[in-house]
Amino acid sequence: MSLPAPPATEPRTITVALIGNPNTGKSTLFNALAGMQAHVGNYPGVTVEKKIGRVRVGETTMRLVDLPGTYSLAPRSPDEMVSVDVLLGRQPDVGRIDAVLCIVDASNLERNLFLVSQVLDLGLPAVMVLNMYDVARQRGTEIDLSQLAQRMGIAVVPTEAHRRIGIEEVRQAIARAALAPAPSHPPLFPPHFYQECASLSRELPNQNGNAVPMYLVERLLLDVNGHVERSLSAKGVVNLNQRVAAARERLAKTGFRVPVAEAKIRYGAIRELLSGVVRHPPERRATLSDRIDHFLTHRVSGLLAFVVVMFLLFQLIYTGARPLMSWIEAGQKIVRAGVAASMPPGALQSLLCDGVIGGVGSVITFLPQIVFLFLFIAILEDCGYMARAAFLMDRLMARLGLSGKSFIPLMSSFACAIPGVMATRVIENRRDRMVTMLVAPLMSCSARLPVYLLLIGAFIPATTWLGGWVSLRGLVLLAMSSVGALVAIPAAWLMKKTIFRSETPPFVMELPAYKIPSPRVVLYRAYDRGRAFVQRAGTLIFATAIVVWFAGYFPGDHRELNSVQARIQAKASASSEDPSQNAELSKLVERENELSSRLIEQSFLGRIGHAIEPAVRPLGWDWRIGVGAIASFPAREVIIATLGTIYSLGSDVESGDQGLIESLRNARRPDGTKVYNVPVALSIMVFFALCAQCAGTLMTIKRETNRWIWPVFTFVYMTTLAYVGALLTYQIGMHLG
Amino acid sequence: MMNTLDQLRVGDRATIVDISGEDGVAIRLLEMGLTEGEEIEVIGFAPLGDPIEFQVRGYRLSLRANEARRLQVERLGS
């Protein structure tokens, strides 16, 4: 679609890093600049998302690197170090940075400029974008742009990214800045400080032949127990801590007190810079945002509003996503039937119908929930409510050792853990984010419901009390839906005491001003999350489905089944009204189901089920339930189809299927005793409440953490919990009779 | 009169005098602009009494009481 570039001039690529505080509209600006074609990945070894886009400006190709939102460039963790490394050109998979684009909230310049002040210390060409310029103007703030640019020594561009205003000017300003030599800024700190840095720098060993960059030496002195100090002393720099401490002590004697000095000096310089450049309205009026805030954080109205918001969230998922999910399921059935009819029965047909279509289906059935949940979360984030929700819920979550920011991801997990795990990105503290992510799959998601409904319907008596208001079935359903959340409390506590031990992270949170959410931002966010899920977790979920199909199909002699299925196909397409034909057809179907049942018993899956029978017997299970549990690894609700196959009913059964309920009630062991009773049913339900039989969640955890260890850990700990829970349930149940 | 920031009431305004500690919490508070001499106002408390919402440097900030306790402040007469 673009014209071929004239060959005379050499195409040039410049790399530009985008950095800014959270809530400045940085992602929106990134999308406006780079379009939708961003490449998303992870930086090696950390959980930070790497997002790189490309855009052409005249002859120049611009590579845009979106760095995570941050308030400061003083790294305290490996994740925070990534941004510093990228800016210093030390991140090999990004390369040298030619210019930095600092995005600031025009209505909140003072605090936003703290980060800019640190960025300018890196000595890179820079452009400052005053985003949400319209909001600042509406509030009566006047900014003298040319004076600001002159004092800062860099280009300043006002934008309204969500309306795409000022975007072209930003592109041009970057292209100009990257060409020009880096501006020099007068040193901010007193000369003693730079002298200490220089002498400290001489004592530091070279890294890969390069001296430690001066910015990092400055950070070493300024950040008490910061990442630079810790990583250098971990690399075995002799006496580092003592030397740094001595230098800090000498500085303190000159009145430069670490860590207070940096903030004091930078904020002092910022105030001086802004004086006469920014004029605020003489008196702070109570804005509409203030009044909304008062209502939404009020003891009574705030909590009520919060309950309403949470209710809407669930309502939206159930009424919005449910129909879409059933359409997807229906569409899947139609495609499957079409494929089945168009080829002879056999391994290929089964691979396509049960493996491929089932696998694709298990990826896209999650999509409506993910998209709807992120639509909702994006609206909450963009209007400013998300931070208030965390504010309201913090005290409650702090009792569990987490913060208010964990509430929405955990709440979302009651619908589906996949978007819940993806939503943990709002938690910037790694420890809180990891713990939230790892307990999120314990929340009772909607995929568990069919399992509960089937077993409750089959085995729990329909006893009611108080004139039908309280039913035993309802109570069991409630208990099963809450057991995961109850177990999550000690699980989270234990994880924080063992694998994620660290100091309690600060819960210092900005409460952004309320605004009307931008449809473009909201829709893009939902689209982006949906795409990220399909691209990044989808392939893994699909692969899992194929593996489980393979284990359920091989080994086994499918010849008779194939011929029976071929006859069914022929009969069904003849579509006769003759009752004798129909009787024959149903006989064939019966034979088909019987053969399928035998084949699954002979398959790897069936053999595994038999092999683990001694392990599941204390739970009250037989090998069939074992097979069902294993086969449901792609998703919990698969157990219903598996049980349908095993009990010769075909895989096309649903949780309310009377045939399946009868088969379960009448299933017997070889010695003639019944397989299922109330304790067995409860044991299966407890197992499914606590187990990690959901490939989608595990693969999403892999993608979010960028490590295999965490999905493996989640699987192991949840399966252990599930086993112990089911064991206790069955054994106690049997003792109580 | 000297107080810690968590002891103030809704509507109180105060000047920050000092931040105690050198750990991540103290550094974060400094980065967010809670520096010596700065004025801070209590906007409100969360329904369960914690955290607390403040206005500082023209923006709204939420701190837990045990973080606000780090800040020595001097209350300003209304």
Mind explaining what this structure looks like?
The complex is a heterodimer of chains A (737) and B (78). Chain A is of the alpha/beta class and 737 residues long. Chain A is built from 32 helices and twelve strands. Among the domains of chain A are: 12-179, Rossmann fold, CATH 3.40.50; 191-255. Helices cover 15% and strands 42% of the residues of chain B. Chain B has two helices and six strands; from the N terminus they run ββαβββαβ. The longest helix of chain B has 8 residues, at 24-31. The radius of gyration of chain B is 11 Å and the shape is globular. Strand 12 of chain A pairs antiparallel with strand 5 of chain B.
Draw up the topology in text.
The complex is a heterodimer of chains A (737) and B (78).
Chain A: E1 12-20, H1 26-34, E2 38-42, E3 49-57, E4 60-66, H2 78-87, E5 99-105, H3 109-120, E6 126-131, H4 133-138, E7 142-143, H5 145-152, E8 155-158, H6 167-179, H7 191-203, H8 214-222, H9 227-234, H10 240-253, H11 260-274, E9 278-279, H12 288-296, H13 301-341, H14 347-364, H15 367-383, H16 385-399, H17 407-413, H18 417-423, H19 430-439, H20 449-459, E10 464-465, E11 470-471, H21 472-497, E12 509-510, H22 519-553, H23 559-574, H24 579-602, H25 604-611, H26 613-616, H27 623-631, H28 638-646, H29 658-666, H30 678-690, H31 695-705, H32 709-736
Parallel strand pairs in A: 1-4, 1-5, 5-6, 6-8
Antiparallel strand pairs in A: 2-3, 3-4, 7-9, 10-11
Helix pairs in contact in A: 3-11, 7-8, 7-10, 13-14, 13-15, 14-22, 15-22, 17-18, 18-31, 19-21, 20-21, 20-29, 20-30, 21-30, 22-31, 23-24, 24-25, 25-27, 27-28, 30-32, 31-32
Chain B: E1 2-4, E2 13-19, H1 24-31, E3 39-45, E4 52-56, E5 59-63, H2 65-68, E6 71-76
